[in-house]
Amino acid sequence: MPFLSRICIYPFKALDGCEVESATILESGAIEGDRAFALFDEQGLFINGKRNARVHLLRSLFNPQERTLSLRVQGIEQVYTFQVDAERERLNTWLSAFFELPVSVRENAITGFPDDTEATGPTLIGTASLREVASWFPALDEQSARTRFRANLEIDDAPPFWEDQLYAEAGEVVRFRVGDVMFEGVNPCQRCVVPSRDPHTAEPIPYFQKTFMQRRKESLPSWTTLSRFNHFFRLSINTCIPPSQAGKILHVGQPFTLD
User: Fold this and answer.
1) How do 174-178 and 153-156 pair as beta strands?
2) 3-31+113-258 — its CATH code?
């Protein structure tokens, strides 16, 4: 039976994630602490890997108890630590110097800052899917693929792209459960330039998108809803979690069941 094998939250949108054993569902459908902070430029746009490849050079570690963010630049040992409430301006100044443009850090503890504002639940992917995608590129292994695609939840003990049965035609949802938490699978996630780059150096893999799209099309399982693919640069599932599930807790090891 497929089961939840990993939970990863990204406290700061676009920065490093951290694996946890459990996660609480918020009323918004997000998981607590995921993408609760984000970096913004002067125009109010996200500073992320889509817009600024220098994001990949930042290593980060967030301590939720102390609310401290530790940052260092890839290849440099010196670590800078900031208390994100009391030292917000100092943090903004450091980030502005690193990116060479004005940066401000904002927090939204209620909904976080999801990429898909209509499907605000955690993203979901299969371990076997990551392994299969990694096999398409000599420079990738399973962990590298995991770091590039940045999903929140990972399914194991299932074939590659098992998760492609967790969405249906446009306007419909597929209901499933992880433990006692009800999910609605919405659509296959459209990817951006980020997975094509090394997550630590920003070095791109040549022809990544073209190769990915060709192999993804060839690998679509029979249970896939083909109409959801206007192109094949899609991987992982966007979800919603109904407000009635608020307060429930996901745990690594819980089974997946289709409603």
Assistant:
1) unpaired
2) 2.40.33
